[in-house]
Design brief:
The complex is a heterodimer of chains A (193) and B (161).
Chain A: H1 3-8, H2 11-19, H3 23-45, H4 48-64, H5 75-96, H6 107-112, H7 121-139, H8 142-154, H9 158-165, H10 169-187
Helix pairs in contact in A: 2-3, 3-4, 3-5, 3-8, 4-5, 5-9, 7-10, 8-9, 8-10, 9-10
Chain B: H1 4-14, H2 19-27, H3 34-49, H4 51-103, H5 106-109, H6 112-121, H7 125-137, H8 141-154
Helix pairs in contact in B: 7-8
The chains are: A mainly alpha (193), B mainly alpha (161).
Chain lengths: 193, 161
């Protein structure tokens, strides 16, 4: 099928096309969602290797369940529900192994970092902002961090995020309110209007 | 009860144009490594490779089941036909036997024993009269009168002496 025609299809149509054997439809669907999903997993896990595994696991489940997919809800809701469940399973596994005793490490900021002397001021400021952001994110309760990251990365509304996380919309809204206030207060002027 | 100021900040944030959102999107821009992309896209294609053999297998299985079904139907049809033929033949034989029975001479169909039984049940008028006469001669008047009554009832149009 022509890529330009395919590009106009919504996610649900692309998923249905893939389920019927159209590999190009999957490529387009994947290109639309891969980066936000990857960032969501990376921020949640705070470990690149674990995030990579979870990322493959989530898409593997999407591929396996392609024939069961029904276009009743948005594809993003389906995708992030799978991702959220994978993250929750990962947290449980980690808790059982007592891995939480070690300090979480944001490997992504280290890998992007260059010596201070080589970086322009803006880049340096961004690195500092990023490090501060990460510290506050890491300090949030899991439920608040999940709602904040889902809101930022999935593009879904609060009602859909409530559905993904298995809570009522008011609970999801309350969690987001707490997360946003903590981030604003901790990050100071850079995070305020 | 939530703070109205916090609610306002949340409403601003929900429009996705807050400094917090823009700051987040400015610093978090990672994408999956290319080897991960290749791995997942290859996996998606591998999953489809099974689609064609799967479809072919399904078509073959359906065709096989269909042909078995046709075979079974034919066999059942043949069995039913044979059964009908047997039933028809039996009916024809029975009809033929009935025809033959009806067209046979009457003596053939009258049971001699039944005839003897019938003849013993009711004697002819002459036999009856002879019996009455014998009873009278033997002095059995009452019995003779009773037999005469029966004779008159059996033959009301004849006059017995």
């Amino acid at each position: 099928m022509d890529q330009t025609i395919l590009a106009k299809e919504d996610d649900a149509q692309l998923m249905l096309r893939y389920a019927h054997g159209d590999a190009q439809a999957f490529d387009l669907l994947y290109s639309r969602h891969k980066a936000p999903l990857y960032r969501y997993l990376l921020r949640q896990c705070r470990d690149r290797a674990v995030a990579d595994d979870l990322f493959q696991d989530v898409w593997g489940r999407v591929i396996r369940n392609r024939k069961r997919y029904q276009a009743r809800a948005k594809f993003a809701t389906f995708l992030y529900r799978v991702a959220h469940n994978c993250v929750v399973d990962q947290f449980r596994l980690r808790t059982r192994r007592h891995d939480d005793q070690s300090e979480p490490v944001d490997e992504t900021s280290d890998s992007l970092a260059a010596p201070d002397a080589e970086r322009p001021d803006r880049q340096l400021a961004d690195e500092q902002f990023r490090a501060a952001f990460q510290r506050v994110l890491d300090g949030l309760p899991d439920e608040q961090r999940a709602v904040f990251l889902l809101y930022e990365e999935s593009g879904l509304g609060l009602d859909e995020i409530a559905e993904i996380t298995g809570v009522g919309i008011e609970t999801a809204k309350s969690r987001l309110r707490y997360a946003v206030n903590k981030l604003r207060k901790a990050l100071g002027p850079a995070a305020e209007e | 009860m939530s703070d109205p100021g916090e609610d306002k900040l949340l409403e601003d944030y929900l429009h996705r144009k807050s400094a917090l959102s823009m700051g987040y999107r400015r610093v978090y821009v990672e994408t999956p490594p290319p080897e991960l992309d290749r791995s997942i896209e290859a996996r998606a294609r591998r999953a489809l490779r099974w689609l064609l053999p799967g479809l072919l297998a399904a078509v073959i299985a359906i065709g096989f089941a269909y042909s078995i079904n046709i075979g079974v139907n034919r066999y059942m049809g043949a069995m039913l036909g044979a059964e009908k033929n047997i039933q028809r033949t039996n009916k024809e034989i029975a009809e033929q036997a009935e025809k033959e029975r009806l067209s046979a001479p009457i003596s053939v169909i009258i049971d001699p024993a039944a005839l003897a039984k019938d003849s013993s049940a009711q004697p002819t008028r002459e036999q009856w009269l002879a019996k009455i006469d014998a009873l009278k001669r033997a002095g059995k008047k009452a019995e003779a009168d009773a037999e005469l009554k029966k004779l008159r009832a059996a033959y009301p149009d004849k006059k017995a002496n």
